[in-house]
């Protein structure tokens, strides 16, 4: 989108390399920019490194024995690579992890309240935001007293997003919100993301395998393959790109082909080009 | 009522009171296990250390006096003051918080993400270290702990229950100390439940117990929660140490109550607070009743092994324990 192109860059990832367990090299130089007020999508198949990229930013990587060994990550110009996840949450950067990760034995409302853990702006402000979350997710309000472990997958995704909202974030790193959800629910969740983006001004960096949906809602996209960014551009352009159409949207001019048939050929072409 | 039945009731009551102490120690285990997945072998020695520290502070003992005296050639033993029980308890609680902080800073922090067995081994090391350290700090002699709790059988209860039985029955014999221990334990458990249900830090503690990655992602500091949990467990150990110490003196065997807590945990489940409480009571009552009824037939001394046999039976038939965490499964 043209208006976001000139927006201030909030988050800048510069050529990072990530190694797990001191030996497994997973990201091999990933760079990306997240503009304020935009929805930026990070696309790619299984194991491409999307989650790893998000965790490098939120610094949840360290607790999984991963390490950023090269490159820099800056938020509002500040190097954030040594900050704890808690310090980042206080600066307005929060991650919603893949697979929801609700606190199963806490009630829905208690789950949401844990999101406000780092806040020091008083009960009133927190309550206002809780109401705001309930307005966006009326279903959670109905189920506020239920144990989160007994809610449905869609509700758990809403809890996870709502919980992040309770921290009053500026930027939300949203990992695979569509995972395991029925198509209609995916639409619902993305519509809410779009709403939060437009009405609350929340900035999103969104990791998705579901390229189709992600490119419809995002403004800009990066495509990751085996730990490298292989393509990036405005979402509208990516949607029209023949490679993207073929590999990630499952359509092509010559009709549907198996992924495996064309993959190596096309990829070689791209690398040689 | 037949006297035999009355005796059985008395034994049950006494068993309940003994069980309260088992419950307290088991509670300390559960708290730490839930929040950090660590099976804290040192829980028993923490109770011993807390009790020793309490006595030392109360009597104004100079810590490390043996060491200081032998190095400097001095003859220090006491500061020469006497600190009231309540203040000494508060100070000891402070020492337990400091202890929690030291454990986090020097042990746990370096072992994050290591397999559970390594953390378990670390707590075994911690146990032996603390045993020695406690002796070095306060001296290895048997100490008398007196925080002003009433002792001896309650005459009031005896007098008011004597009418229940015949001439051979003089009323229930119940130690006042046991009553105090039960009341204190009940208050402690209530306070713990209130804390974990209704405060922000308590909620964070439960969140960490559920999913520590997610807790990290919302900005909860695991390290802070660990210090918090170890402090709470240290405080629970202090209370258990006071009760046990007041009953049978502060000595090495106090740390062995940890061994009694093990069958309680098998019974109640390692992650269940109500399980720890009920499990402790069942073991307390069970071992007293068993000794009372079956003991005479097989030569007595059943209290040493009864708890373990009961726990083993439980392991076979209900490995998750009586209240083992409900494994949430959606339908
Ligand atoms: N904790 C870990 N230790 C070792 N390797 C890991 C770890 N986490 C991820 N990996 C590896 O890193 C690579 C990238 O994983 P990542 O989770 O970032 O992929 P992804 O793009 O999010 O995939 P998906 O769409 O399946 O979630 C994979 O090959 C994975 O096996
Ligand atoms: Mg992923």
Summarize the structure.
The complex is a heterodimer of chains A (273) and B (331). Chain A has 273 residues and is α/β, with parallel strands linked by helices.
Distance between the termini of chain A: 27 Å
| Tally of alpha and pi helices of chain B | 13
Using the CA coordinates, give the radius of gyration of chain B. Answer: 21 Å
Q: Compute the number of structural domains of chain B.
A: 1
Helix content of chain A: 40-55%
Describe this structure in words.
The complex is a heterodimer of chains A (273) and B (331). Chain A is of the alpha/beta class and 273 residues long. Chain A has three domains: 1-92 and 169-180 and 192-238, 3-Layer(aba) Sandwich (Rossmann fold), CATH 3.40.50.300; 95-168, no CATH class; 241-273, no CATH class. Helix content of chain A is 40%, strand content 25%. In chain A, the strands form two sheets. In chain A, strands 6-7-8-3-9-10 form a six-stranded mixed sheet, with helices on both faces. A four-stranded antiparallel sheet of chain A has the order 2-1-4-5, covered by helices on one side. In chain A, strand 4 and strand 5 form a beta hairpin. In chain A, helix 4 runs parallel beside helix 7. The two termini of chain A are 27 Å apart. Chain B has one domain (3-317): ABC transporter involved in vitamin B12 uptake, BtuC (Orthogonal Bundle). Chain B has helices at residues 3-36, 43-59, 65-72, 85-111, 116-138, 155-161, 176-198, 200-210, 212-217, 222-248, 257-268, 273-293, 306-317. With 331 residues, chain B is mainly α. In chain B, helix 1 packs antiparallel against helix 10 (222-248), helix 1 (3-36) runs antiparallel to helix 12 (273-293) and helix 2 runs parallel beside helix 5. The A-B interface holds A 58, 60, 63-65, 84-86, 88-90, 94-97, 101-106, 110, 113-115, 117-118, 147, 149-150, 152, 163-164, 167 and B 112-113, 200, 203-204, 206-207, 209-222, 325, 328, 330. The complex binds adenosine-5'-triphosphate and magnesium ion. The site of adenosine-5'-triphosphate has 17 residues of chain A, from strand 2 and helix 2.
């Amino acid at each position: 989108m043209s208006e976001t192109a000139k927006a201030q860059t909030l988050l800048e990832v510069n050529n990072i390399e990530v190694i797990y367990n001191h030996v497994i090299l997973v990201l091999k130089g990933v760079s990306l920019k997240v503009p304020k007020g935009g929805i930026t999508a990070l696309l790619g198949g299984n194991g491409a490194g999307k989650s790893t990229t998000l965790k490098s930013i939120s610094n949840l990587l360290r607790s999984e024995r991963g390490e950023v060994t090269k490159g820099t990550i800056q938020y509002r110009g500040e190097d954030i690579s040594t900050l704890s996840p808690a310090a980042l949450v206080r600066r307005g950067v929060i991650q919603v992890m893949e697979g929801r990760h609700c606190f199963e034995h806490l009630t829905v409302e208690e789950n949401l309240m844990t999101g406000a853990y780092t806040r020091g702006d008083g009960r009133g402000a927190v309550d206002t935001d809780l109401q705001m979350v309930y307005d966006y997710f009326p279903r959670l309000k109905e189920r506020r007293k239920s144990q989160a472990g007994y809610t449905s997958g869609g509700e758990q995704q809403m809890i996870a997003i709502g919980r992040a909202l309770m921290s009053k974030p500026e930027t939300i790193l949203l990992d695979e919100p569509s995972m395991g959800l029925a198509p209609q629910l995916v639409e619902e969740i993305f519509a809410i993301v779009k709403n939060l983006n437009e009405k609350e001004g929340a900035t999103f960096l969104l990791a998705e395998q579901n390229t189709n949906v992600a490119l419809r809602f995002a403004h800009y996209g990066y495509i990751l393959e085996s730990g490298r960014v292989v393509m990036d551009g405005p979402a509208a352009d990516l949607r029209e790109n023949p490679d993207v159409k073929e590999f990630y949207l499952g359509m092509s001019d010559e009709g549907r082909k198996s992924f495996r048939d064309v993959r190596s050929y096309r990829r070689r072409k791209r690398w040689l080009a | 009522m037949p006297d035999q039945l009355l005796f059985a009731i008395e034994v049950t009551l006494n068993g309940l009171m003994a069980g309260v102490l088992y419950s307290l120690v088991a509670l300390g285990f559960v708290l730490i296990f839930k929040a950090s997945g660590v099976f804290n072998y040192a829980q028993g020695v923490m109770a011993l250390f807390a009790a020793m520290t309490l006595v030392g502070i109360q009597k104004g003992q100079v810590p490390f006096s043996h060491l200081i005296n032998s190095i400097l050639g001095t003859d220090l033993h006491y500061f020469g003051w006497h600190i009231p029980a309540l203040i000494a308890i508060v100070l000891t609680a402070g020492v337990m918080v400091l202890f929690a902080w030291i454990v986090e800073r020097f042990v746990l922090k370096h072992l994050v993400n290591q397999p559970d067995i390594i953390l378990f081994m670390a707590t075994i090391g911690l146990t032996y270290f603390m045993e020695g350290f406690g002796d070095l700090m306060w001296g290895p002699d048997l100490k008398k702990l007196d925080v002003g709790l009433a002792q001896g059988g309650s005459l009031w209860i005896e007098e008011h229950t004597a009418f229940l039985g015949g001439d051979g029955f003089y009323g229930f014999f119940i130690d006042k100390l046991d009553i105090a221990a039960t009341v204190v334990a009940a208050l402690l458990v209530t306070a713990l439940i209130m804390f974990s249900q209704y405060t922000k830090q308590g909620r964070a503690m439960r969140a960490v117990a559920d999913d520590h990655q997610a807790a990290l992602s919302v900005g909860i500091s695991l390290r802070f929660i660990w210090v918090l949990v170890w402090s709470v467990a240290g405080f629970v150990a202090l209370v258990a140490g006071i009760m046990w110490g007041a009953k049978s003196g502060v000595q090495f065997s106090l740390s062995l109550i940890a061994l009694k807590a093990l069958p309680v945990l098998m019974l109640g489940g390692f992650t269940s607070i109500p399980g720890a409480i009920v499990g402790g009571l069942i073991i307390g009552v069970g071992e007293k009743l068993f000794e009372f009824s079956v003991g005479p037939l097989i030569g007595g001394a059943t209290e040493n092994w009864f708890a373990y046999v009961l726990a083993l039976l439980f392991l076979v038939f209900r490995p998750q324990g009586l209240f083992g965490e409900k494994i949430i499964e959606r339908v």
